[in-house]
Design a protein that fits this description.
The protein is mainly alpha-helical. Helices cover 61% and strands 2% of the residues. 18% of the residues are buried.
């Protein structure tokens, strides 16, 4: 009769109740038998409570970091490795952002899965103060309000779709900074640091490009192409900004509500492992494989193109002899990638040699300015003195019409060239140390 009044049989048929037991009690709760019956009933409930679900538990930030490492960072840097080995530029920003947003969307679905809402755990009857169960879980961990809270926080990590970029370095940099500003709309006080950081990334890439062109082609003022925009670093900077903002928002909310368990994520490992990358990323990695086979060394070719373009702009009215120089630059077998990827140890060794040579030349220059014996009489320069083709003479230097002033001038020019090379080497060393 009691089971019918409580609807226990119907609940059992619907699978909402696994097992039940009706235990009659006497009216006097102070009676010894009643106390003993209550104790046995509680023991029976503890023995027949549902089994603990196979749930993983992580703080929200750790959950996001774990998911990004599994599905975003690993896939991205596998592609970066393949592209670097083939001399290809960074992947398209649309594909990078698309992969990242896809991972964030998947993590949001895992943390707020409908499967979690159907789990009746922990047992509310065995909860202790502050709605915390003896298993350590909060009773509201899968409530509607908690699911909405997690969904809102995780979804806020998504990045907007990047705009289209024109084939011009300066216009592309301007559009890139405008894109970064859209990420900081809701956080105006933190807008300036993010924008300045992206500016420094772009300026460093431009300096590296100019230095490489100067060292390889003796051509200054070269302008990079859109392919040289470091999208990997820019997107990573934006992601770091989003994660920092998430951490600040969680800390503020936890202090406001006084609940440290407010942003704990419970999830099923089986749900997390179902992630599949978007089709756009699959096509992007396939394009990387095709470019490695049919269009390698795109970055190297862009250096040639930029150097020749700059040379064309400065020599629009050149004659045939100047054009021969241009062709020579195009066919110059310089391994750009090797030069730009030398190890820090190689640069340190080269820098030490350059400094020693500069000290020697400085001492020699000081000696030349003092009266007495000519110090250049026994000097062997590190540069070659090129004479005109028609004057093939083997006489000593003093018999070909070179005065001490001429030799001093060439010495000064050699010192200037060595100093310029030394400065460029220090810049490259500093950029490698910063990375």
């Amino acid at each position: 009769m009691c089971s019918q009044n409580l609807g226990l049989e119907q609940l059992e048929e619907e699978g909402l109740l696994s097992v039940y037991k009706i235990q009659p009690l006497l009216g006097d709760i102070l009676d010894l038998k009643t106390s003993e019956t209550l104790s046995k009933s509680v023991e029976w409930l503890a023995l027949h409570q549902p089994k603990l679900p196979v749930l993983k538990q992580l703080p929200l930030r750790a959950f996001v970091d774990h998911g990004l490492m599994l599905f975003f960072t690993t896939s991205l840097y596998d592609d970066v490795r393949d592209r670097k080995q083939a001399g290809l530029p960074d992947q398209n920003p649309e594909d990078i952002v698309g992969l990242y947003n896809s991972v964030i969307c998947h993590l949001c679905q895992v943390a707020t899965s409908p499967h979690l809402a159907s789990i009746s755990w922990p047992v509310a009857e065995f909860s202790i103060k502050n709605h915390e169960s003896i298993d350590g879980a909060h009773l509201d961990w899968n409530s509607d309000s908690q699911m909405l809270r997690l969904k809102s926080r995780i979804s806020s990590l998504q990045l907007p779709d990047p705009p289209d970029f024109l084939d011009d370095w300066y216009n592309a940099c301007s559009v890139c900074l405008q894109y970064v500003k859209t990420i900081t709309t809701d956080y105006s006080r933190t807008k300036a640091p993010l924008i300045n950081r992206v500016k420094r990334i772009l300026e460093r890439r431009q300096r590296e490009f100019e230095n490489t062109c100067y060292l390889s082609f003796d051509q200054s003022g070269c302008v990079p192409t859109v392919a040289h925009i470091p999208w990997i670093k820019i997107v990573e900077t934006c992601i770091s900004y989003k994660l920092a903002m998430l951490q600040d928002a969680m800390q503020y909310q936890e202090e406001l509500d006084g609940d440290p368990r407010l942003f704990l994520v419970y999830y099923l490992e089986s749900d997390l492992s179902t992630y599949k990358p978007p089709n756009s990323w699959k096509l992007a990695t396939k394009q990387t494989a095709d470019d490695r086979r049919f269009h390698p060394e795109k970055i190297v070719k862009s250096f040639y193109e930029s150097a020749n373009k700059k040379r064309d702009e400065s020599n629009e009215q050149t004659d045939g002899a100047d054009m021969l120089t241009l062709i020579k630059v195009i066919s110059k077998p310089i391994a750009i990638v090797k030069e730009t990827s030398e190890t820090v140890e190689d640069f340190k060794h080269q820098l030490t040699k350059e400094k020693e040579e500069m000290k020697r030349l400085d001492k020699l220059l000081s000696a030349c300015s003092e009266p007495g014996e000519d110090p250049l009489a026994h000097f062997t320069p590190t540069f070659q003195l090129k004479l005109p083709q028609e004057s093939k003479v083997t006489q000593p230097l003093e018999y070909i019409g070179c005065t001490i002033e001429d030799k001093l001038q060439e010495l000064r020019e050699s010192i200037q060239r060595d100093r310029r090379a030394n400065q460029l080497a220090e810049l490259k060393l500093q950029s490698l140390l910063d990375d």
